[in-house]
Fold:
Amino acid sequence: MKQKYSVIIEDKKSSCTVKQVSQNTYDQIHNMIKNGADDMKILNSLTEITTTEDNIVLSGVSTNEAIGYVSDSGQNYVIVHSI
Structure:
């Protein structure tokens, strides 16, 4: 089965957006985190996250719902905060 990768963007304490991303973007996020980049820098620097709307899987859900969705789908995921 092909691996799927998602970013959970936590907009507010109770509102998240789940975006499906490429493995390349997923790996870039992990590298940026490892190199000390903050979440806003990550969000603003990756085009796939900031400009593409057709990759939104869920919107307006809680963090627990977002994690549950990606976990149940067997997706690799990372959480970033936009606040």
Observations:
- The first helix runs from residue 23 to 34.
- Residues 5-81 form one domain.
- The chain has one domain: 5-81.
- The first strand starts at residue 5 and ends at 12.
